[in-house]
Amino acid sequence: MKFDTIIIGGGLAGLICGIRLQKAGKKCAIVSAGQSAMHFSSGSFELLGRLPDGTETERPLEVLKQLPKEHPYSVIGEETVAEYAAMVPMFLEECGIKVSGSADKNSWRISPTGERKPAWLTLEEFVSLPDKDSKIGNKALIVNILGYLDFNTKFLADSFEKQGTECRIVSLKLDEMERLRKNPSEMRSTNIARVMDREEVWSKAIDQINSMIKDEDAIVLPAVFGLKDSAIIEKIRTRLGVKTYFIATMPPSVPGIRAQMRLKAEFEKCGGYFFLGDTVKGADYNEDGSIRSIETANFGNIRMYADDFVLASGSFFSKGLTATPFGIIEPVFGIDVKAEDSRDNWFDRYFWNKQNYISFGAVAKNGLHASKDGKTVWNLFLAGSIIGGYNALYEGCGGGTAIITALYAADEILKK
Questions:
Q1: Distance (Å, rounded) from C-alpha 399 to C-alpha 342?
Q2: Rounded Cα–Cα distance for residues 51 and 33 (Å)
Q3: Coil, strand or helix: which one is 344?
Q4: What stretches of 155-296 adopt beta strand conformation (E)?
Q5: CA 209 to CA 75: how far, in whole Å?
Q6: CB neighbours of 304 closer than 8 A, spacing ≥ 6?
Q7: What's the CA dihedral at 367, 370, 374, 376 to 10 degrees?
Q8: What are phi and psi of 141, to 5 degrees?
Q9: What DSSP character marks residue 305?
């Protein structure tokens, strides 16, 4: 099989890169092992929340020049990052994903535990707050579904009450949830969302909520509505008639899965080939060190050839990187990886501290090329969290680096 570009990894970075290339006329294939980090999304994309030294920032574009040279934003260049950041909302909307927010100033999203986190772009069903200390209302009704344990109402109430919002917690009891409730492992967000997608069910839920409202000026609901169609969200808000906040639950994430499904559908609508449930086992090289073809588990002896390759396989979570007794490796191509030599420096024993291993990853040369044994692999590009040199969790820039490196890698291929 022959393609113009083969992308390894079907998460946010891989799909964005593939859509960009397909719309420019390239014939692309994405090889995806399965679930991506989008299944764990809290409903927002972050551009930059703080610098590596811990300094928080409200205006990410104004501090890009202060990032270390190995940071992906520095490799791309601050002006280019700003250009991409400005075009991303329209790009996503063309894929059927509506977002709010601006790269000029961070807004704040509410995490599943009630914490306020800086956000760049927020999915349409979520309400972002203008500042960290904003109240969601004077009185809030926090509504859960009876038996659902992945929506921690107590944490949320404690957080809101610190901001001066009086909270009351109630639970919905729906006959349609009884089958799921009999087995706690079935009371997961995606299973609940499939039931809630039926109009007669979500409509019954809204009737119950309306009967529970007293003098509250805010309603808080788990984000378990609209797995297939986000139009349900606006219908619910209209029926309630009170400002309604949908809060991300513990994984799996219904909004994240829906966003991934829309990106995948857009990629395939543009003519791309998406090979789900397959993994790359190895590569064949040309004499100049560039990649000629790859071998996958499902296709066996049938090799996949391309002019260019994009590695968007993620970090440790998705096995894009592997830790061994001898160090950190990239298992597909064996490309150069930047990591601490001493295992004692890989992590901090206190879980909530900054963890160094998150900044480990592939060395990104100019143009986001990978390198192997110190030599640039001219037709292998990097995108997303496979790239080292930044700590996505600590710096609050995971979504931004995924999207912007994907667009940049695609454009570097198109320049060729």
A1: 29
A2: 32
A3: helix
A4: 166-172, 218-222, 243-247, 273-276, 280-285, 291-296
A5: 50
A6: 1, 3, 6, 29, 31, 293, 294, 295, 296
A7: -60
A8: -100, 110
A9: E
- 295, with CB counted inside 10 A (0-12, 13-18, 19+), is middle
pTM above 0.85, yes or no: yes
Amino acid letter, residue 266: E
Instruction: Enumerate the β-bridge partners of residue 324.
Output: 327
What backbone phi and psi angles, to 5 degrees, belong to 137? 165, 175
CATH 3.40.50 residue ranges in the chain? 127-247
Question: Is 101 within 8 Å of 107 (Cβ atoms)?
Answer: yes
Residue 271, token pair as written in the block: 């003519």
Closest to 206 in 3D by CA, of 229, 168, 235: 235
Which amino acid appears at position 9 of this protein?
G
C-alpha distances (whole Å) from 253 to each of 9, 271, 394 are 19, 27, 21
- How far apart (Å, rounded) are the C-alpha atoms in residues 310 and 364? 12
108 pairs with which residues across the strands? Answer: 118, 129
User: pLDDT (tens digit, 0 to 9) for every residue of the chain, 416 residues total?
Assistant: 999 999 999 999 999 999 999 999 999 999 999 878 888 888 899 999 999 999 999 999 999 999 999 999 999 999 999 999 999 999 999 999 999 999 999 999 999 989 999 999 999 889 889 998 899 999 999 999 999 999 999 999 999 999 999 999 999 999 998 888 777 678 899 999 999 999 999 999 999 999 999 999 999 999 999 998 888 999 999 999 999 999 999 999 999 999 999 999 999 999 999 999 999 999 999 999 999 999 999 998 899 999 999 999 999 989 999 998 889 999 999 999 999 988 888 988 888 889 999 999 999 999 999 999 999 999 999 999 999 999 999 999 999 999 999 999 999 999 98
Pairwise CA distance, residues 198 & 148, whole Å:
19
- What is the C-alpha to C-alpha distance for residues 6 and 304, in angstroms, rounded to an integer? 8
The CATH architecture to which 2-105+267-415 belongs is 3-Layer(bba) Sandwich (3.50)
- Report the CATH fold assignment for 127-247: Rossmann fold (3.40.50)
Enumerate the CATH 3.50.50.60 domain ranges in the chain, comma separated.
Answer: 2-105+267-415
- Strand-pairing partners, residue 99, are 123
Measured in degrees and rounded to the nearest 5, phi and psi for residue 399 equal -65, -40
Angle at 295 between CA 293 and CA 300, to 5 degrees: 135
